[in-house]
Amino acid sequence: MVTQKLFGRTGHQSSRIIFGAANLWKASAEERANTLQLLLKYGINHVDVAASYGEGRAEKEVGLWMKEHRERFFLSTKTGKRTYREAKEEFASSLQRLGVDYVDMIQLHNLTDLADQQTALGPGGALDALVEARDKRLTRFIGVTGHGYYAPERHLSSIERFPFDAVLLPYNCIMIQNMQYLENFNRLLNRCRELGLAVQTIKCIARRPWATKERTHACWYEPFVESTDIDRAVHWALGNQDVFVITSSDVTLLPKILDAATRFIERPTDTQMKELTTSRKCAAIFDGARTISP
Questions:
Q1: How far, in Å, CA of 276 to CA of 169, rounded?
Q2: For residues 14-30, average pLDDT
Q3: pLDDT score recorded for residue 288
Q4: N or C: which end of the chain has fewer CB within 10 A?
Q5: Is the pTM of this model over 0.90?
Q6: Domain locations in the chain?
Q7: Which of the two residues, 163 and 294, has the higher pLDDT score?
Q8: Distance set, CA 126 to CA 14, 72, 112, 132 (Å)
Q9: d(CA 105, CA 6)
């Protein structure tokens, strides 16, 4: 079984591995059934999805699970809309696709663009729709997510403007080689610890951008695929006791990720991680040449 940890101030004991359902809709019926059984077997009790994944098809697939297993899972979805009206409409559609009366958390999706942040968090913005949904008990908690090198800095700004319950951002041994990203990530982590916010991380097993147009896995980066490599990447991320790790969107890699998580004891050394990134010719999947500040 995967160990659990209190998910911020929500009161929920979430598995430290969160299932990322982004590409569940691309899986075969057999793969989707096997995925659910794996989650139940390993005690994964937290699912992350979004309205935009497969244009709602991922939510529909998760919704099929919710018919029988709603009480087993902390259910989180996202809206990428920035205005009150659009976010309200999209969230209503999410509830319908998921087949539930409420979700445990709704998150503002990829809020890293400065103009988007001003709109979403300002008067008549998407945040107003999420607060209204919480007041109506359509959601219990509200979070914010981000991709790329801007994410920690944007999140620091967002959580000072509104008492979010969770943040989500990239975290792997390649990204933190960017010293500015590492500094801002640690600043965010410390502030979330002070405020009691849950910190969710993504891109744990990202190896590098795809080198060719042919993609062998259902994720937008080239992932680690060997069990020994996945072990090291997952153990490195879990070695930060303050974070949760969201799985890769390719469900065929899920068994290796969950198996690695159950065997986690301690974080690999810097030397071991350098050996991994060198031997596997790893590279950052985001443009680290840009400065983080606008």
A1: 22
A2: 97
A3: 55
A4: C
A5: yes
A6: 4-279
A7: 163
A8: 26, 29, 14, 10
A9: 15
Q: Are 153 and 117 in contact (CB under 8 A)?
A: no
- Are 104 and 74 in contact by the 8 Å Cβ rule? The answer is yes
3-state SS, 23-73, equals CHHHCCHHHHHHHHHHHHHHCCCEEECCCCHHHHHHHHHHHHHHHHHHHHC
Write down the residue that tokens 């979700």 correspond to: 103
- pLDDT bin (cut points 50, 70, 90) of residue 291 is very low
Within the chain, strands assigned E span: 4-6, 13-15, 17-20, 46-48, 74-79, 103-108, 139-145, 166-170, 198-202, 206-208, 222-223, 243-246
How far apart CA 270 and CA 176 sit, in angstroms, is 12
Query: What gap in Å lies between CA 203 and CA 248, rounded to an integer?
Result: 7
Residues facing residue 287 across a β-bridge: none
Question: What's the angle, vertex CA 231, arms to CA 35 and CA 219, rounded to 5?
Answer: 50
Please count the residues of the chain.
Answer: 294
φ, ψ of residue 183 to 5 degrees: the values are: -60, -45
Beta strands in 130-214 (DSSP E): 139-145, 166-170, 198-202, 206-208
Q: Looking at the domain covering 4-279, what would its CATH class be?
A: alpha beta
16: phi then psi, degrees, rounded to nearest 5: -70, -20
Instruction: Give dist(CA 25, CA 64) in Å, integer.
Output: 11
Supply 222's token pair: 């080239």
**Plot region of 134 (φ>0 → left; ψ -120 to 50 → alpha; else → beta):** alpha
Alpha-carbon distance of 183 to 204, in angstroms, equals: 18
User: Per-residue pLDDT averaged across 20-45, rounded?
Assistant: 97
CA distance 227 to 219: 17
Q: State the Rg of the chain over Cα.
A: 18
What does the CA dihedral 1, 188, 146, 40 come to, rounded to 10 degrees? 10
Task: Decide: 74 and 45 in contact? Cβ < 8 Å.
Answer: yes
Helix (H) or strand (E) holding 277: helix 270-279
